[in-house]
Amino acid sequence: MPEKPLPFKKTLQMRRNYLGRACKLHFEVSPLKIVRASKQYLYDDNGCEYLDCISNVAHVGHCHPHVVHAGQEQMGKLVTSAGFLDDKMVQYAKRIIETLPDQLCVCFFVNSGSEANDLAIRLAKSYTKNEDFIVLDQAYHGNIGSLLELSPSRWKKIGITQKEWVHVVDYPDLYRGRHKDDANPALKYAQQVHTAIKKANEKGRNMAGFLCEPLMSLCGVINPPKNYLQLVYSFVRSSGGVCIADEIQVGLGRCGESFWAFQMHDVVPDIITVGKPLGNGHPMAMVVTTKEIADSIGEFNSTFGGNPVACAIGMAVLDVIHNEKLMSSARNVGKCLMDGMRAIAPNHPMLGDIRGTGMVIGIEIVTDQESKKPSKEGAEILAYKLKEQKIIVANDGPNKNVMMILPPMCFTCDNARRVVQAFDLALADIEKGTSNKPLDQSEDGKMNIPLNILSGLGGPAGLGIMAEEEEDDEPDVKRARYDEMD
């Protein structure tokens, strides 16, 4: 007999009692309890359906039946086979390698993107016999110690000081970056890498590598200018280092133009790392590199990396990407969404830059389009306003003012139009609430947006803590969308 679901308040209280305070929730002030999901939709404990614009982990759609069946079937046969021959592992490795340039031909399986990036760092150091790395300002590459030291976006938050072997350069921002108006911004930004290498060499230090996302999602969705990565890779390799492409957020067709984000820039990295989307929510990740780099470490073991269940699920994800033409869908749906946002931009002074490609989109929320001043408060309120309309969007980026849209790849043009309409309505409400006073005029520097523009303030739909009444013990959960398919 299935266990009776916990009431909302009980779940919330237990989380507060038993989980670390550093573990944050979406909508911390009025969190959602999600009990099931299907395709691009989430369902809460009251049966309300939300359009999911943020779960890039559920790459081909939440609980896709083909993926679920593959995992269930393999789990009934063999779960772990560490140290033994296994068909699923080699078949999956072959299928991934077939999507990559010829020189990227050796796989290592792990369980998370953090593990993948950690192994990539180890491989680079082992191969080059050097220690130093170049990363982008505001980058994030994982939550284990070695990677936090290479993630400038986390340094202030957790008290890390920059290590001597870590060198930081600007991310190539064409919206408000220092070289945005330069005739050749790619060269200007790339020259920072060349300068960092030169300064390190003067101190007797040598480069192990350069690590970045080819489409810089965690910097606020920064698509590097043409030739930037070509120039950077050339500088790094000339210094004896290797180039690592972190494809964890943006790989597997999400960019729409190519299967891997690095392919949009006509470069071939020496190492790529892949994580979140491989298993559609099942924990799996991998590193792919050249034979020479792979052979530079004496031994590597991962008990659960590449286990039969993970590889069965991974192959099912590849099946769905191909059979449902999700890469071309990402291109078309992403264009639909960005075209829609650009169409409403003239009506909304808070709508700044709209950028990205495929299903990796960032929308800057600003105090006004002329100053381009980031509006974190406006973005946070917009996220809650969209939640009222049953749409889940997160604000992130260096100033927490970029609305990030990285949904499951089954997202449709109808979904995109719904998001555009919701942005249009929500921004109109916010701007109307602030129209009598400029957004950046408060004495403490915070944006003057009255919180009562959110409907239901103090209740479950708005910013306030949940309503006082007890939740229904038997929530009426809607039927998931896949149940309606043949």
Notes on the structure:
Helices cover 33% and strands 14% of the residues. Mean pLDDT is 90; it is low at 435-486. The protein is built from 13 helices and 15 strands. It is globular, with a radius of gyration of 23 Å.
Characteristics:
alpha/beta; disordered C terminus; 15 strands; 7-stranded mixed sheet; 486 residues; single chain
> Low-confidence stretches at least 5 residues in length (pLDDT < 50)?
435-486
How many beta-strand segments? 15
How many separate helices?
Answer: 13
**What percentage of the residues does DSSP assign to strands (E)?**
5-15%
Strand line-up across the major sheet: 4-10-9-8-7-5-6
Secondary-structure element string: HEEEHHEHEHHEHEHEEEHHHEEHEEEH
Describe the sheet with the most strands. Answer: 7 strands, mixed
Structural class: alpha/beta
Summarize the structure.
The chain is an alpha/beta fold.
List the helices and strands and how they pair.
Layout: H1 8-18, E1 34-38, E2 41-44, E3 49-52, H2 65-75, H3 87-97, E4 106-110, H4 113-128, E5 132-136, H5 145-148, H6 152-158, E6 166-169, H7 185-202, E7 207-212, H8 228-238, E8 242-246, E9 271-274, E10 285-289, H9 291-294, H10 308-323, H11 326-344, E11 351-357, E12 360-365, H12 376-388, E13 391-392, E14 394-396, E15 402-405, H13 413-433
Parallel strand pairs: 3-13, 5-6, 5-7, 7-8, 8-9
Antiparallel strand pairs: 1-2, 2-3, 4-10, 9-10, 11-12, 12-15, 14-15
Helix pairs in contact: 2-10, 3-10, 7-8, 11-13, 12-13
